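Q: What residues go here?
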């Protein structure tokens, strides 16, 4: 008889969803792009920042990370082709 230990090996690398394409990747495959949005809200520098998680190996995601807006201000229209913008680490 075999002992079934299961395959629930605890992962060392936490997986996070890319803010750009929505794929779930491990941290080692992801980069973070922080944008200061304070000027759009008429606030002091550093008051409002967003951090976008993107696939480092995907040039599309890199490009999206620089233009993606997770925080919407009144003057910036919501991007229509992105659908939902998932927040990372929302587990
Ligand atoms: Zn991606």
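A:
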């Amino acid at each position: 008889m075999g002992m079934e230990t299961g395959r629930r090996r605890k992962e060392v690398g936490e997986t996070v969803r890319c803010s750009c394409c929505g794929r779930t990747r491990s941290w080692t495959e992801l980069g973070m792009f922080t944008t200061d949005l304070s000027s759009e809200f008429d606030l002091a520098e550093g008051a409002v920042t967003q951090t976008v998680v993107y696939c480092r190996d995907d040039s599309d995601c890199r490009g999206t990370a620089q233009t993606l807006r997770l925080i919407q201000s009144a003057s910036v229209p919501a991007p229509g082709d992105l659908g939902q913008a998932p927040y990372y680490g929302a587990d």
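A: Context that may help when evaluating the design: Residues 15-67 form one domain. Residues 11 and 26 are 10 Å apart (CA to CA).
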